[in-house]
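pinned: reference chain
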Amino acid sequence: DSHSAFVPLALLQCDMSAEAIRRACHFTAHSAVHAGHDIYPYALVNETLGDLLPKKARTYTGELQLSMNELAFNLCASANGVSAQHAEGTRDAYPGRPVGYITPGVHHLSWVSGPMAALFDRDLPGWRADPEVLRRADALSLGALWDAHTLCKTQLLRRVNAESQQGYAEPVLTIGFGRRATAYKRTALLF
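pinned: its structure tokens
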């Protein structure tokens, strides 16, 4: 999540003042777990970047190691987490740092698949105009929900097989990642 610190770092490299960088930048922290915070020993930074790292960067990143979150906190006027709980965890990890939060959402009409939309149309009327109706999804018939899920899986596997020629089979548990699969997300728990 600290990749966003590359923007203030680049501005620092362009000899922009810290005050001007702060006025231009905001930091969104995406990971409250320590493993999600990018921290590098300066020996590695110097070996990798050479003199691309501005000399004054240590003022904002830490003297002992380059902490991308410290850089972002020091060179951004504001910061937020991606939920109230996440902001609280980030404030705990970085005491004294003001961290607000913005809870992301989804556009329910784009997010819901065709088979699920048909189920919702039938059993949760009004969900398209008022997404709060979806809070009653726990009342859906498990059989109808499974049928819609199975149809979604069939459609997805047909598309993936058409594009990849991999031959994925419907009765087989298939797990895919649409994002980076990193160790701290603990994907091994699935197995």
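why pinned: Residues 142-164 form the longest helix (23 residues). The beta strands are 26-28, 39-41, 65-67, 78-81, 100-101.
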